[in-house]
Every structure is written in structure tokens, then in C-alpha cells.
């Protein structure tokens, strides 16, 4: 477990840029990982390397061949990281853009008639895309209600709402508002029990940094992540599409290669920086386990990340040493409940006597970076049913430490009065 090894924690933190110092603010604790995780130093170096290369893919010269090799290696690394032995990986503008594209392809390319199903817990990227293209295709949209108390949607809830004519289904892996994960495999099983031929899309953007992605076990057709939330950089997203989704009439160049999702010349640096992410998980897995198989090392890394982050969120909620936890503060509401076993590296809360915006401002003044979630188009689906106008999101990753948690709790003790 990472929390038990100071040497390992130091080695992990040394691999990330700006781990404890903001180039604009100065020293700070970074608890805003759900808005964008820290960036690996290797990603920064790789980005600079490929940004300087003028050549394109598909040419008859050594530089072009090297670019093609880097992209091929990255796709193999993606297949390893996501555990997806079949299907295709490709990059796009962002996770949101790829979400719209995969859902559009599934809705518009599926059999005429039928309906589209999703849940009220989803990020607006997948929910907006599904509702928009369902309307464009004349397919009714079915909304599965999530449980306000747990912040989750269950397989049973999908099973109760789904009909045999569902053509496309969307699932949120983990909520960026509550940090609570959903049972993707269980929900997919419930969908296929009634609508076996439905195309199933999963938003994995918030989940990815916490590891433990296993596409082969989900029985789905699309999965999207935003690499800047999993230790890479802004400017691209990564998508996986099943072979059956790729077989639909996808948007591609006429008379071009069949099944080609890529639109124009790709940024080789984007692909290469995701290889950096996969190599990091492999390194971490080799450090926390004796595994020799690359996939086993990635799984070991995911298990260690989960254990470490649970220790940190438990400390945030219940306190450490003589410091009270967030759950012990007067007038507090914890989104998703206090002891939710499916929490992943995030605690979102509000106090009834101190506005969320004031809490975020006061924490920032003490060098503790958090974020406010408002009942707007991003988070209103979660906050409005709870009667909340805003909440404070404390989101962490495995490079955060118990010492940083102590600083947060000490500040919150003072702020809460």
C-alpha cells in the first residue's frame, strides 16, 4: 500500500510536474484532480519531442516510419491498459467530442425505430449526446433515475426501465461530482438481458485515473477517456470502439481504408504521451508487486491506487489524529453518503452555515486547491434533487498524501467554526 512507504510516495511524486508548487500561485496542495490530474514529466518531454517534428505519417521516409511506429505502439499500449484485445483505439479532439461521435454513430447507424436509454447520473457529455441524437433519429429517450442518497444508478434500475427495442444505451463509469462508481459490467448485463443487440457506450473519463479498467469483462461497444484526467495532457481524447460499432456507417473518407475512425493527420505526440501513461502504470505495478506480466502489473497498480485513495478519503471523512473529519463537521452533507464502498478518490460536501464558494476561497488562500460544483448544466442533475445550490469537491489521486489531508482537515476545522 502506497501510504505505508514514504520512499515509494517520493518516487511517485517525483514523476509528476508541479506536484506541490503551482507556477502561478506558489506552494499548494492539489485536490482538484477531477478537474484535471497532474501531468507526468515524461508526458511533457514527449510532447515537446513530437511537437518539433515536421513530418507526417504515411510518407516514404524514416521520420514518417518512426511516427507510424509510435502510433502503432500506442494503440498496443492502449489495448493493454484497457484490456481490450479486440476493437479499435483512436484519438480525437477531446473526451467530450469522442463521446458525441461514438454515440452519434451508434444512434444514427443502428436499426430504425427503437429507443435510447441513459441515466440521470451521467455527465452532460453523454447525456446531451444521447438525447440530441435520439431526437434527430426519432428514437424516444428513456431516462433511468439514479439514487440521490448513494449517487449511483444500479443494474436493477436499468433492468426496470429497459425495453427490448432499445438500440443504444449509455453508462457513466464514475461521477465527477460525487466520485461514486457504477457497476458497468452489471448494468451492461442487465441491458443485454432485455436488449441483447443494443450498442452500449461507457463514459470512463472520471474513472480512468484510478485504474482498474477491464473492457473485455464489460460486454460493451464504446469507451472514452480524457487523457488530461489520467496524467497526460490537454488537447486530445482516447476512444475505443468495438468491431460491431466500427462496422456501422462511420464518418470516413470515401474510398479510404475501411473502418478508419481517424479524421485527417493525427497528432503523433498525443498517441505517444498515452504510451507514457501506460508505462507509468506498468512501473507502479512492478514496484508494488512481484508481477512480471505487463497486464498483471497494471492491475496491481490499480489495486494499490484504490487502496491508497481509500485510505485518504477515509481520513478526509473520518479524521486523522486529533483532527475531525469532514463528516464530523456541524451541518455537513456528504454527497453519495459517508461510507459508500464505491467511492473513488473524491469527497464532495457542503456545510449549511458556510457557502461552498467561501470554503473554496478560504482553502485556496491557504494553498489548498479544491473546486466548487454548482447546480448548473454540469452538476445540476446531482445537486438540484438534493436541494443544494453548490458543493465543495475535494478530488485526489494516488500521489496525494496523508500530510496533505491533515492540512485540509486543519483548515476545514477553522473554516467550519
From TrEMBL:
Keywords for this protein: Aminotransferase, Pyridoxal phosphate, Transferase
Stored InterPro entries: Aminotrans_V_dom, PyrdxlP-dep_Trfase, PyrdxlP-dep_Trfase_major, PyrdxlP-dep_Trfase_small
Residues annotated as domain Aminotransferase class V: 29-246, 303-408
SUPFAM superfamilies the record matches: PLP-dependent transferases (SSF53383)
Gene3D superfamilies recorded: Aspartate Aminotransferase, domain 1, Type I PLP-dependent aspartate aminotransferase-like (Major domain)
GO terms for MF: transaminase activity
Name the record gives this protein: Aminotransferase class V-fold PLP-dependent enzyme
Organism: Sulfitobacter sediminilitoris
